[in-house]
Amino acid sequence: MLEFLKNKIGHKRVVILGFGMEGQSSLRYLLSQKYQGEIFVLDKNDEIGINSLLSENQISYYGGENYLNKMNSNDFIIKSPGVKIDSPFALELHSQTSLFLEAYHTQVIGITGTKGKSTTATMMHHLLLDQNKKSFLVGNIGQPAFDLIDKINEDTYIVYELSAHQLQCVKKSPKHAILLNLMPEHLDYFLNKKTYYLSKLNIIKYQNSRDFYYMPAEAFDIACHLMKINPRENKSKILQEKIYYKNEEILKKEDLKYLLGQHHITNIQGLIELVLYLKLDLELALESMKTFHPLPHRQELLGNKNGIRFINDSISTIPQSAIHAIKAIEKVEYLILGGYDRGINYDELTHFLQKTTLKEVFYLGEAGKRMLSEYKKSYGEPIFKYTYHEKLADIKEYLLQIKTGTVLLSPAAASYDSFKNFEERGNYFKQIFLEI
Asked: Which of 94, 123, 155 is the last residue before a domain boundary?
């Protein structure tokens, strides 16, 4: 990998743009390989200098609001996923993901989608381990790929959870690609829905005819409007929430002991197709899927206490995921919606809510305020009880007074108005449950 990077970089200055988890991982790798070229670190945070990676290794850096002005077109730029550049085509941008895929794309199982990618990627990783395959789970799940380079050999599978931000700069697609779904999200970062979708579709854009991809019908229809794509026929099929292979039922929704919702069936079909492509043991793979436990903050049942059931779906940041959660969970009485407003269209959610049997909805933040306003504008006064609050902490006492029923946190909005991320929001919700 080091020789590959040296040939790519040449005599250019390496600029690590963004010094979060991936940026630090990129620097650690270069330092571990004793890279001798010039390295410059840029970040919006003006306190990055206190990081020991920089100070102990005498790495040049700049932190502050004008950090994007400190690079030029002659730099070899390794951009972190969260860094937004208004005119990205004025610079040649690389990323940890793009460089890793160039070097290891034949061994990568790339999994993306607006929703469900973490659960599906984790399931695929465990499925491989259950078949005694060497597998690493990297990417958007929280493990930078460069941290594991020294442990990779030619027999290693790399299951790579890929966000749209990570796919934005890639020029090589993984040999094995699963695209679960496409729904509008991150419109505060991408110019519009089309550019977001095109970033996602980079997961298959550079594949050849011998490579594997899976997309459900809805995502395939969107993809066909945006790029030329060769159709691929599935070996399995879904009928009435059941998966069939060679005309035999091999999996039904009820087999998934710990996963709620029909959407998991579609996601699992992608894994089954890949299992068949890789010629893995199908029966063993199905058993791995049936016993798989969901990840935290994803329709996570926190428990039942005195007739009260709390379910943490803090990962829900778009309306479609909240709709999926309400459909998947039997009888939701109390729903918590809202948070940071990113300008997402909530028409579908509003239409869905006026047909539910919800007892009460807690609307939070600017997103919640807009959801409530749009509901009233379209349908008049809600059919359920509702209240509006600035933040999740404001409804803690209300939640503690609930005597019976299911309480679902599925906000359909980002968390950044009150929390660092959706995990922090979900953990706060857990603490409320623990007080019951």
From this structure: 94
